[in-house]
Amino acid sequence: MPSPPPPSAERIPKDAPIYVTMGEPGGIGPEVAVAAFHALNGKLGARPLKLVGDPGVFRACGAVPEFALVASHLVNVPRKPGTADPANTRTVVDAIDEAVALVRNGAGAAVVTAPIHKASLMQGGFEHAGHTQYLAEITGADRAVMMLVGGGLRVVPLTIHIPIADVPRAVTKQAIVETGEIVLRALCHDFGIERPRLAISGLNPHAGEEGALGREEGDTIAPAIEALRGGGGQVLGPLSADTMFHEQARARYDAALCMYHDQALIPLKTLAFWKGVNVTLGLPIIRTSPDHGTALDIAGTGKADPRSMIAAIRLAAQMADARN
Fold it and tell me: Between 2.60.40.1590, 3.30.1440.10, 3.40.718.10, 3.90.79.10, what CATH number should domain 145-281 receive?
């Protein structure tokens, strides 16, 4: 069975707020945050929604009551839809820091992050590849794992934003076992599944065809699966990635661990392009986010779709409830 949750994963009060960060001021993040706030009437059950960032940025995207705003560092450059300004890096990061601190101090249930513009932040001195790596550092997590949820599917890419040519070297027994353990634990404690089932894909076509199309399945992936089973996990695989996502196959597992980015994200985005949610597993806090970027090209045009943000907020609340 999955190991117990981290000590900080304590019971969460039913009325603890959910904090939604601003994200990139010039992108659609604050727009969908405000739209989601209104679509949900400012709360989910007894949990109020709080918008964290520069109040002026949120108000530029729609009316927001004062009590729903948590002010962090103000922008250095006013919001200009469609433009990401590195001068606002501190504002973007401070909103994340503030929301995380509130949840870690017991004043909140979860953090939902609006999209950040990585290139702009790096120009402004931010030294992390994205939200996931930064959240792992500031919360002291040993390993953070990205899960995408939507359309009745939960998927985890073992390797994420690396070239395909580098994937085989990154597929190691240790990485699979460590990631698999985090996923199984999260399915139990954050999704309320008493005996979670994990499917693990192969790397090569047809899961290597017994070595004819590649040896990674036999040399690396299968031993990792046996190690997870030895720890009490219900694990299937290695499975051929091209046949593990049809309806009947999905009924056999609660989450799928895939070897690289597109193996996992193509089926998820096919099933739930507008409602996919990014979840970071392995943290001492609950963190979700919409599965889209800053969309600078449509910021300020009224075309931003809040459905993924709404789904991210709903899932954060469900995960908080599951921990209880």
Answer: 3.40.718.10
Q: Looking at domain 1-143+283-324, which of 3.40.50.2000, 3.40.718.10, 3.30.450.20, 3.30.1030.10 is its CATH number?
A: 3.40.718.10
The torsion of the CA quartet 88, 90, 95, 99, rounded to 10 degrees, works out to 160
Amino acid (1-letter code) at residue 289: S
Residue-wise pLDDT for 172-228, tens only, equals 999 999 999 999 999 999 999 999 999 999 999 998 788 888 899 999 999 999 999
**Which residues have C-beta within 8 Å of that of residue 231, sequence separation ≥ 6?**
181
- The answer to whether the beta carbons of residues 79 and 26 sit under 8 Å apart is yes
Q: Residues of 128-147 as b/e, b for ≥16 C-beta within 10 angstroms?
A: beebbebbbebbebeebbbb
Rounded CA separation 59/74 (Å): 13
- What is the distance between the terminal CA atoms of the chain, rounded to a whole angstrom? 19
**Which tokens in the block code for residue 262?**
């597109």
Nearest to 116, CA basis, from 102, 126, 108, 105: 126
Q: Tens of pLDDT along 63-104?
A: 999 999 999 889 999 999 999 999 999 999 999 999 999 999
Q: Which of 166, 110, 171, 106 is nearest to 135 (CA)?
A: 110
Query: Where are the chain's structural domains?
Result: 1-143+283-324, 145-281
Q: Residue 169: count other Cβ atoms within 10 Å of its Cβ.
A: 9
Phi/psi of residue 248, nearest 5 degrees: -65, -40
| CA 274 – CA 259 distance, rounded (Å) | 24
